[in-house]
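Hi all, long-time lurker, first post. I run a small reading group and we've been trying to get comfortable going from sequence to structure in the token notation. Rather than ask abstract questions, I figured I'd post a concrete chain and ask someone more experienced to write out its structure so we can walk through it together at our next meeting. Sequence below, copied exactly:
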Amino acid sequence: MKQKLYMFLLFVLSLAAAFCSYKYLSGKWELLGIFISGTGIGMFLMALRLNVKNDKINIYKRELEKESISSTEAVSRVKVLESKIEVLEKALENALKK
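-- Answer (accepted) --
Happy to help. Here is the structure in token form:
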């Protein structure tokens, strides 16, 4: 939420700088205002892009965690079944000896 607020404020300030530079400044100050507003808008666009990229990375991390959890569950099930088989084999051997 804080990041979205930061991006919104950056966008609004960039638009305000562009409006003021076109409306109230003249000469070399107008170019400086245009440069500052362009830089702000560029920062806003890059922040949007990074936000989307970070969201995709987080989704991918969650998928990897789910896969690792399911694989550990499968491994633990196999171990449990192997131990049950060993117990049953020993019980069968003991039953056959009697």
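A couple of things your group might point at:
The chain has one domain: 2-97.
The CA atoms of residues 7 and 38 lie 15 Å apart.
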